[in-house]
Design goal:
The protein is of the alpha/beta class. The chain has helices at about 30-40, 60-65, 80, 145-160, 165-170, 180-200, 230-240, 285-295, 340-360, 395-405, 410-425; strands spanning about 5-10, 20-25, 45-50, 55, 75, 90, 95-100, 105, 110-115, 115-120, 125, 175-180, 210-215, 245, 250-255, 260-265, 265-270, 275, 280-285, 305, 310, 315-320, 325, 375-380, 380-385, 390. Helix 1 packs parallel to helix 9 (about 340-360) and helix 4 (about 145-160) packs antiparallel against helix 5. It starts with 5 loop residues before the first strand and ends in a 20-residue tail after the last helix.
Length: about 450
């Protein structure tokens, strides 16, 4: 029997909004936040619901995991970002049920009504049918994930410092990262810099030469979304930083301190005290709930297949944006990637479309402007593909930094990041190396 629910009706932020259409936005990530900001001043009542009270700047989580910056540098309270909008109310909680016929969502044990619904619930990690791997190999999707990876890295370094057994030290100084996309490459480069330079400077017992970092990916090259020349440049930069690349490798098993990988060379076992997972992404379970409630279609990654205006068939009042949507209405028919730039543009366009319907005008059809892709590989090392213009090395690294500062939603965090990056460049010292308490592994999303 389904749990009993009661109907939740909250007073609007302003009395003038009592009879205005109610727009509910689920998810305060890049897409949801862009939609909120674009609806500022509209003659609409807006409610933003998220299970976290902050917006997380996921592209820089790897810097949290390696002590370059603090968790607060990439997490901005939603109320600080959009809470002052007169027509908007922020609610903390998790949406777990959708009733599209009655236009209500299940929210913390109650039903909440909407006139228009924007789902921007994002995505989580998937271990391809092996959720038990999550505890052994944390992913890089949540703030807790990044803090747990940092805790594990620092703890093994501390244990190695007090261990007289040289074999045990080499095991503790070994790291395996699964996944050769931007997150995996960025994490590998930063882990190498952390473990080699910090070991050399701050730990007396350890030899940086005993550190081994292995990056495993099933493909034939890193960063497959980029130009092959940039993939080659990325591989060269990581290898120069001491990262071993194991391409064409597929993970078969993960156990405490070891994993087995099959490749063209056969099966091999990698021993490492720290294992990190950046290989799998699957859309929020809310996509599956929407499919059950409306019969909309999902792609293989659990993303909702949407119409050109981001609605679902038969329900123009429901829009799906960000990592949760599979938007294939592109010139080449390929769905837009789950990245910050598409999410921001989706959120802003859907908000303009809603305002246009209310105010009697029609926006131009959605067209994604692709600013390019990039990945940083360590201090002064990066690759960038900006609409066909390719860069590598220090110039790409500078462009990467400017782009990420521009996307940072909180001006205060933008300034703090710039100052911290300048400090790291000038001193090679990381300020966020405090070992915290262990975290429970984040929930993973499996089909």
């Amino acid at each position: 029997m389904a749990p009993e629910r009661f109907f939740l009706e909250l007073e609007p932020p302003l009395e003038s909004l009592r009879q205005r259409p109610h727009v509910v936005i689920v998810g305060g990530g890049f897409a949801g936040l862009a939609a909120c900001r674009a609806l500022a001043g509209a003659d609409l009542r807006v409610t933003l619901i998220d299970r976290r009270n902050f917006n997380l700047f996921q592209p820089l989580l790897y810097q949290v995991s390696t002590g370059l910056i603090s968790p607060s540098d990439v997490a901005s309270p939603l109320r600080l970002l959009v809470g002052r909008q007169a027509n908007l109310q922020v609610l903390l909680g998790e949406v777990d049920h959708l009733d599209v016929d009655r236009r209500r969502i299940g929210f913390e044990g109650s039903d909440f009504a909407y006139d228009h619904l924007i789902l921007a619930a994002g995505s989580g990690s998937t271990y391809f049918g092996h959720p038990e791997w999550a505890e052994l190999a944390p992913s890089m999707k949540t703030l807790e994930d990044a803090e747990e990876i940092r805790r594990r890295l620092l703890l093994v370094m501390e244990e190695a410092e007090r261990t007289p057994d040289s074999e045990r030290r080499r095991h503790l100084q070994a790291v395996v990262i699964v996944g050769g996309g931007p997150t995996g490459c960025e994490l590998a480069g930063s882990v190498s810099d952390l473990m080699r330079h910090s070991l050399e400077r701050d730990f007396k017992q350890l030899d940086p030469a005993d550190t081994t970092i292995t990056l495993v990916d099933p493909g034939d090259r890193l960063l497959r979304a980029l130009d092959p020349q940039l993939s080659a440049a990325a591989a060269q930069a990581l290898e120069a930083a001491g990262v071993r690349l194991l391409l064409g490798g597929r993970v078969r098993t993960i156990e405490a301190g070891r994993l087995s990988v099959t490749s063209a060379e056969g099966e091999q076992v990698l021993e490492a005290a720290t294992i990190c997972w950046t290989a799998g992404v699957r859309a929020s379970p809310l996509g599956g709930e929407l499919a059950r409630a409306s019969s909309c279609r999902l792609d293989r990654g659990g993303r909702v297949e949407v119409e050109p205006d981001f609605s679902i068939p038969g329900h123009p009042e429901i829009r799906v944006i960000g990592d949760l949507c599979a938007y294939a209405h592109t010139p080449d028919g390929r769905p837009l990637p789950g990245m910050a730039a598409p999410a921001v543009q989706m959120g802003a366009w859907v908000a303009r479309d809603l305002r246009g319907r209310l105010e009697g005008w029609t926006p131009k059809p959605f067209r994604f402007f692709d600013p390019g892709s990039m990945a940083v590989l360590g201090p002064g090392r990066a690759v960038a593909d900006l609409r066909g213009l390719t860069f590598s090395g220090p110039l790409a690294w500078l462009l990467w930094g400017l782009a990420h500062l521009a996307f940072m939603p909180d001006p205060e965090n933008r300034l703090l990041l710039l100052l911290k990056w300048l400090w790291v460049i000038g001193t090679r010292q990381r300020s966020a190396l405090v070992i915290g308490q262990p975290q429970a592994p984040a929930a993973v999303t499996e089909p």
